[in-house]
Amino acid sequence: MLCSKTMPVVVAVAVASLSSTAVSALLFHFVELPVGWCLIAWCAPPAVMAIASTGVRRKAAMAACAFLIAIALAELTLDSLSIRQRLEHGVRYEGSYLEYFRHNDPITGYAPRPGAASAVKFVGTNEIYRVIYTINTNGLRLTPLATIQAPAVMFFGCSFVFGEGLNDSETLPWQTAVQCSGAFRTLNFGFHGYGPHQMLSSLESGWADRIASPPVRAAIYVGLLTHA
In the 8-state DSSP scheme, what is residue 150? Predict the structure, then answer.
């Protein structure tokens, strides 16, 4: 059995360990690079042992605490270098589209919300694009108006079709309508990450046909093999 003098130390170390576990869980949930801070949090159990013990146990606890602090400082130093490198060379997005642009959709899984949203992309401090994405009331990227009698051409696919980094008038469906002098109603069903499964669901559900309405001249799919 543990003696009466040892029991308070064991309890204190156990409490410190539970506290370190709780703090680590919170750090992993709220902090982007938590490992260094978690190592510092785990200095609590050996620190308690060092305070409450004497002799060899105290020396061992102090050594463990010093080791954890050394590893934590190394980790935090590497984290700061990583953050600086990402700020200088990493990809970063800004704009109102980050706040509300996507929503859950029963047909495609996720879809853009109707309205206009700004999107800005940076690589390091260099601005790559600054555009406006306009989504119509049907949930499609805006394309030129055309007469209802004009044959429809439906475009399906990923951000290549949607036009990531492009303004409304620069997308493939919009330019197709312009180059054909308005002879076709072009419809942009594309969106970030969409694959053939979104196209299939849009057609099987009848949603795409309801939006396109006859006559439909063609359906064009553009995408990446990784989206299949």
Answer: S
168-178 confidence digits (pLDDT tens): 999 999 999 99
- 89: tokens are 């060379």
In sequence order, the 6+-apart residues with CB closer than 8 A to the CB of 142 are: 134, 135, 136, 168, 174, 188
* Tokens 């029991």, residue located: 7
What is the Cα–Cα distance from 205 to 199, expressed in whole angstroms? Answer: 10
Strands 109-112 and 152-157: unpaired
Structure tokens at 58: 């105290």
For 159-210, how does the pLDDT look when each residue is reduced to its tens digit (9 = 90+)? 999 999 999 999 999 999 999 998 999 999 999 999 999 999 999 999 999 9
Query: What mean pLDDT value characterizes the chain?
Result: 90
From the CA atom positions of the chain, what is the Rg in Å?
A: 29
- Among 40, 33, 32, 48, residue whose Cα is nearest residue 73: 40
Whole-angstrom distance, CA of residue 165 vs CA of residue 73: 40
Give the separation between CA 89 and CA 218, rounded to whole angstroms.
Answer: 42
What SS3 state is found at 142?
coil
What is d(CA 1, CA 157) in angstroms, rounded to the nearest whole number? 70
* pLDDT tens-digit series, residues 60-114: 999 999 999 999 999 998 888 877 776 666 788 899 888 777 889 999 999 999 9
Question: Which element (helix H / strand E) includes 174?
Answer: helix 172-179
